[in-house]
Amino acid sequence: MAFSILIKNGTILDGSGAEPYAADLGISAGRIEKIGNLAGETAERIIDATNLYVTPGFIDITNHSDVYGTLFSVPSQESLLRQGVTTILVGNCGESLAPVVRRESLTELERWTTGFSVPINWNSVAEYYENIENLGVGPNVATLVGQETLKRNAKTLEEKIFLLESALREGAWGLSSNFSFAERGSAADDEILALLKIIKKYNGLYKIHLKDEGKNFLPSISAAVSLARASGARTVVSHLKAIGRDAWGDFGDALKIFKKAQSEGVDINFDVSPYLRTGSALISFLPSWARIGTNEEILKRISDKEISQKIINELKSATLHAERILIASAFKDKSLVGKTLEEISKHTGAPAEESILEILKINGLNVSVFGKTLNGRNLLLALTSPGGIVSGDGSGYDTDFRRFGDLVHPRSFGAFPRFFSAISAKAKISLAEAVAKMTSLPAKALGLKNRGTLKPKNIADIAIFNPAEFKDQATYGNPYRYASGLRFLVISGNLAVSEGELAAERHGLVLRKKN
What we know:
This protein is of the alpha/beta class and about 525 residues long. It folds into 2 domains: about 55-275 and about 375-455, Metal-dependent hydrolases (TIM Barrel); about 280-370, no CATH class. About 35% of the residues lie in helices and about 20% in strands. The protein contains 17 helices and 21 strands. The strands form 4 sheets. Strands 1, 2, 3, 4, 5, 18, 19, 20 and 21 form a 9-stranded mixed sheet that branches. The chain has a 6-stranded parallel sheet with strand order 9-10-11-12-13-17, sandwiched between helices. Strand 11 (about 205-210), helix 7 and strand 12 (about 235) form a beta-alpha-beta unit. The protein is globular and about 80 Å long.
């Protein structure tokens, strides 16, 4: 038979965790038709994959291209495609772009975007998906519903449940929460459990941004496990990390908590971004009580003399390590970009804690930072955990994005090749297991049935790369550099990257969850 694409002489890492093997792979009608010795078969396009690895396309289960606005300003998402990413899950960390009852409710997301406003002309998840389809995007896109989005668009629990259930029926994949920006208490937990009852009903995914990744790291892990246990919902903790020396020693105990819960039948896991510097909003350094509410409420709070002094005192007790915190982006004052808090503090003569508040006020809260606050041993421990998933935790860009004068975290350009080529070897993870952590494991967590492994009848989302050249090139000082080594990328049976060149046409699909 004639295939649309025939990949010959490749080394297949099928995503299941099985050892690599030599085989050909034939694609027809967007799906994998045959794997094996296909000598003599014909195809519209034949790819010689001699000395190349053939793997499932990578699935980025913690992605922020939606709230950062780049899904719309850079629809090609080229920095992700060139890493071998074929599917992204957005709506993470409590924030999604749908459902939207009041479009002004999304103004809070302006703290995340750079030089671009998301053109909201939808209300429901169904309409949101249609907008993405009409735009045309590089990778496949699936969304969760953000709990903070529900809060801003509904007053009562009944209204939130109605919005969530409607979104799930329209193809959303689950719910995400960000406890670092939310008040917790018995009433809040009751609300979450009520929402998670709906998630469980629809067999959806629940993703959690921990309340505290620092000194209260372990209690935050325990709280996440408790929710997973009580709800029975499939749960993934996003971008697991322990920030700061005070928390580093707790990381092993956190992994033990996960392992114990899993042994008791709790469906909980985590994903990890393979970097030692965090990338986060400067606002996240404020005490949890100080960052609750709208942008207007937060700005009013940090401008109040008495309240701001209380914030400063709490920041001083937290031991900031100002020399390790680098300003990556600033909405208005670009002179801050590339400088550490310590350097800014010395220049202004104000303590670093005061500088944080001034920087936030000047830039309308829209400031991101890199923090050298993670421990290398803990990163390897997390990645060697059998069920640990690799994620990007970034956004899709192109190299033209540097025109805005900001730095982006290099993970947006290199997370997946970095893990494959550098970190997996340090962690003593086999190539087969490394690929599984980027493909079948996130597919299983999300509930994707026909992606994440290379087998007949699965959708043909496939990465083909030179293992000796597949490396990240982006750095913190120069992040706008594409990963090297990717030769071909197939999305739903279409070539998105061919001979290392991006195709003019975008082939990403909206992935609607079927209930």
